[in-house]
Structures are given as C-alpha cells and as structure tokens.
Amino acid sequence: MEEVVLRLKDATYRHSLYAPLAFKPWRKISGQGIFSANLSLHKGTILGLVGPNGAGKTTLLRMMAGILPLQEGSIYESEKNSSAVLSDVNLRNMVGHMPEQVRWQGRKTVRDALLEIGEMRQVNESRIDGLLKLVGLRSRIDAPLNELSQGMRQRLTLAAALLGSPNILLLDEPLNGLDPVAAAAFIVLLGKLTDKGVSIVISSHQVEGLVGIIGRLALMHRGQILAEGTMLEVAEQLNLEKKTEVSGEGKAPDFSKYVSTAELIEVEQSSGEWRAVLNKSEPGLLKNLVADGIEITSWTIRQPNVIEMLCAATGQSIEDVGLEVSSTAVMPLRNFRGEEE
Amino acid sequence: MSDFSRIMVFAKRLMRERLFSTRMYIMLPILLLFIPGMAWGFSDPNIVLPGGHQPESPMEVLFYASLGVVFGATMCAVLLSYDSVSRERASGVLELRLSQPMPRAHQALAMILGSWRAILVPTWILLVLSVLIVRYRMGDWPSLGDCLVYFISTALILLWYVLFTLLASSYTRDQGTAISFGVGLWFLFTFLWALVTTMVAYASGVSIGQENDAAWVVLEGGLDLLSPNGVYHHLLETRLSQIDRGIAVWQTWAMALAWTLVPSWLFIRRMEKILP
To answer: Do B99 and A97 touch (CB under 8 A)?
Structure first.
C-alpha cells in the first residue's frame, strides 16, 4: 500500500449558528458540520469524496486546507514511521486548495492574479508561465480577469492551487464549467500529477466520470465518513457484491421465475428493449433465460457503482439520498439579523 | 523574503489595484475640489469668516482647509475600501487567500496598509499642493512642525475610516451593507456628532453653543475625543495656540493611538477567525 502522507484523526468542526433570544441576542449554537472524521491520504493517490449535497464535502476540504480550524481531533503529517501534528500554517504549506467556482473579476490580469497568490506562497515568478501553460492559459496571460470564461476561471483557480508545488491537492468540484474536452484534459493532468507523487482529494458531483482514476473513495453523509477505502474495499465493507446487468429484446421476462438467491433491483422496459439489474450473480440464470427463448443482447458482471454504494451506506434510496438536501445543504449559511454571515 | 517584506509587497499590490481603479478616477476631481480648493478659498486675503474672523497664519488656513479632508477624503476612503473583504469573499478569492501559508494577521495588515495607502497617496499629494497654494496666496510657509502634524493627523483620520470600513466589509458578504455602514458612520461623525454633543449638553444642564461658557467648551472638547473627526481637529489644534478647549496634548495623542489600535486589533482578530 502507498505511503500515508496525511492523516485526520477524529477531526471535528461544527458550524456556529446564530440563535438569538430576546435577552441574549448574541447566542450561538453548534450546528451541522463534520463529526469525528478519520481519513488517510496516500501518496500519489486520488481520493474521491462522494456524498449528496450538504454532506459536508466542502467543509471537510476546508478543514484539510487549514481554512476551518479543528474543534476536536488533529491532522498529522505522516512521514515514514513518524507522525507529527500539523499547525495551520504548515498544513497550508503542504496543501494546494482549489475552491469551488472562484469568480475571478476585475481589470487585473491573469498573471497579476497568480502573482498575488504566488507572493503569499513565496513562489518564484518564473513558475507562473509554466503553470499557465500546464492549465492551457498561456495565451491569456495578459488578459483581464473580466474577460475570462467560466472554464478559464476554473483553470486559473487550478493554476493557483498548483502554485508552490504542493504535495496534496484539494479540488472542490473542479469539473464545473469545463467543456468535455477540457474535462478530459483535466483528468489526464490529474493522472500526471499523481505520477509525480501528488496526493489529490477530489469532491465532485460528476464522480462517475472520475471512477477510472480514483484510487480510493470516501462516502460522506450528514457530516460523517461512512466508508473509506478502494472501490473494492468499500464494496466489501458495505457487503455489496458484483451486480449482474442483463439486457435483451422484446418484453422483459418475469424474473421471479429465474431468480432464487439474487434480488432484482432494477428493471427498465422501453420500446421493445429491456434492461435488468440483479444485486449479485445468480447461478444458471443465463442458461435458463436462453433455454426459454428469451433474446439476450448483453450480459455484464460489474462492480457496484458509486451511487449504489452511497445508497447502501446511507440505507436510503436514490431519491432520498439525492433529494434530501433541505436539512443539510443550508448548514454553512448563517443568518444574523437578516444578514448572511 | 521576510514576513515584513511579504506584507509590504502584498500591500503594494492592493494599493496599486485601488489607486488605479475606476472609482479612484471618479473621486479624484472631488478630492481636487475639496482639498486644494478649500486651501485656495481660505487663503484669500479678503476672506471674512463668520464672526468677522480672518485667518492669520498659514496653519490656521490649513486648519480650516482640513474640512476638505473631513468631507471629501474620508468619504473617498470609505468608498475605496468598502468591498475590500466582502467582494473577495463573495467571489471565492478570499477562500483561496485564506488557504495560503501567509498568516492571516499578515494578510489583514497588508489589507489595512494597501487600502490606507491608496487614499493616502493622492491625499498627501493634494495636501502638498495646498501648502504651496497657501504659500503663494499668503506669502508665508507653515512651519515644519505644522506640516508634520497636518500630514500625520490627516493620515491618521484616513486610517481610522479605512479601518471602520474594512471591519464592516469583513462582517458582511453583502456589499450594500458594508457601504451603508461606512457611509452611516461617516454621517454620524461628520454631521450628526454636533447633535450628539448638543443632546449630552442638554442632559448635563450645560448651555448649548455658548462659546464663552467654559463648561460648554470643555464638554464639546471632551466629546470630540470620542469622534475620529473630533480627534483630528484636536490634533490640528495642538498647533494653534489661540485655541484651548481644555484637552491636553497627551490626551489627544492618546485618543489618536486608541482610535488606531483598537479597530486595527479588531480587524486583525476578525480576519484570523473569518470564514470563507
């Protein structure tokens, strides 16, 4: 297994919410947040953070970036056999953070925007040209920020995160605003970085597209990490077996006649074609279907996907996991006398 | 690069950004009219002020011309820095800055210095112009001490307004609230402080507006220490021997120090705890 470069131990952060009372207008209470998160980052590996809206992915990334202070627990730097608790400044030195959707604006040029961040990291000016080339913005180096498209702004944010050659890169929804070609190029770039030993944590709603490059996965829900490990390890932790996906022509057969040990979890019928998914493999299923003259067009045994894992981890259906945002997504927003704090 | 150099480099970048901003180009004519314009007007040999008074010395003219700083430069300081934090916060750039290894206290100091110098540089240039105008019109230079106090106290009042505005900006994501706070405070200290003084005098049984009544003069002088504009005038009055409002020089400088340190400390503390 790869060397662990960073370890979170019982890391906790709860947002403070204003809850004014008539005689105590300053009263605050602890709200949602991250509860006792334990996580290890492995060298040169991409960790995918997956969870529904409001699960706490951004909060966790901000804790790892040294932006939000830990209220309990610690973050350790693991070097060989020793580990040391990291101060906020040391943590920020190690980590490059790409926040979600930075809206760069103003008459400042791309070069000046990067120089400003570079000065805060004590990065040499000569590195900026190389970084802009890496993210495909070299031709826009003297363009004002106001003239950048959303995709270009994302690239600029990535370049800012890469300043100072961090060992760890935290990416919050990095694919937002990128066109498909740019997204593909971005994924290739992530691969190159991991080859150089950079550890990456990526939080993305489009995580299915990243499954091919994700080495490890952390499933999050309501501020907790429910499962963490490689895709196989997480599937094992959740007792998920390989799925059987069958499709064919004509009318979907009555699977209750064919299935005894497995469970049918999904059937779709559309204009003369059908598709069914079973939660595990069923011995003799293909043979029996063919013997009954049912026309099979495809037969796949596949690993459970990320959404299935998330549903299994939370014990909720896709609809519940996907739509249950009212109680959690609003958690970082606080109101004080009508003003968003 | 040392911490100090890094703060200064970052501050210089922020200053240049504001100094060459569109809003600075809009405000420059206002500053030009207010600061050298007032110096020109008050240095007129034929001017007669209310009460039949005529300014006698260059410092007295500069004292009256300081109204241009109080009305124009402080408002420009507010307008220049009201979105220093709130805009960066709303756009996500603040989150990127907060994730950098540069300590937040240093970032806060750089923001203070950058925003302050952006208004200080044009104001000081216009103050130099005012001194030259006074020399031209009155045929006499203000003393070096007069100039030092005039320039330093003007720098301080601008710093105080920048600090108030930065504090407001750091507490709001909504830029409208930040500017309302800055302008509101400006109105309070520039126009409404006289009302506050009057109300306190009324409540204390002191006759209002009687310049010959020692109780009124002392009360007004004391309450002025609680207003940045009042402290600014007290500082300038230290160079005018004919004005005595019962406030010692050390008291004035102590309040100037307090007006500088307390909001600076509050802003740095706020930036150390700010959430993106």
So the answer is: yes
